[in-house]
Amino acid sequence: MNISDVAKKTGLTSKAIRFYEEKGIVTPPLRSDNGYRSYSQKHLEELTLLRQARQVGFNLEECGELVNLFNDPGRHSADVKSRTLQKVADIERHIEELQAMRKHLLALAEACPGDDSADCPIIDNLSGCCHHKEKAKA
To answer: What is the distance between the alpha carbons of residues 56 and 49, in angstroms, rounded to a whole number?
Structure first.
């Protein structure tokens, strides 16, 4: 298969496929005499794994580990499960951080009059000061 065939079958762009090859995340394809890449079913499977792993939040390094596990006939499913559960814990932590940010932003918006005045509790809070009030006192 050539790179455009693989791109169509995996849902990745040719540019993304070359990037993953450059980073050493997937097995490098063989090159024909004219220098074109020649992909096998194994490459298709690695790239599909990589695309789907990225879609559920694995970063490039983690994807590389998953591709290595995919290619290791002696792998243990416990290793894959452990990495997956660690990713779930990372996502849950991130969700908690996002919820805290949302709550903070909603509280800031609630404190802001949202009118034509320059006084803005949102800016004051985010900047860590109340410079408008200090200028008024001077």
So the answer is: 11
- How many whole angstroms from its chain centre is CA 62? 11
Run of H or E residues at 30: strand 30-31
CA 12 – CA 15 distance, rounded (Å): 8
Instruction: Give yes or no for a contact between 103 and 86, defined as CB atoms under 8 angstroms apart.
Output: no
Q: At what angle do helices 77-111 and 60-71 cross, to 10 degrees?
A: 160
Q: Return the closest-CA partner of residue 59 out of 80, 29, 81, 90.
A: 90
Amino acid at 57: G
Question: pLDDT tens digit string along 70-111?
Answer: 999 999 999 999 999 999 999 999 999 999 999 999 999 999
The CATH label, of 3.90.1150.10, 3.30.750.24, 1.20.1250.20, 1.10.1660.10, for the domain at 1-74 is 1.10.1660.10
State pTM to two decimals. Answer: 0.76
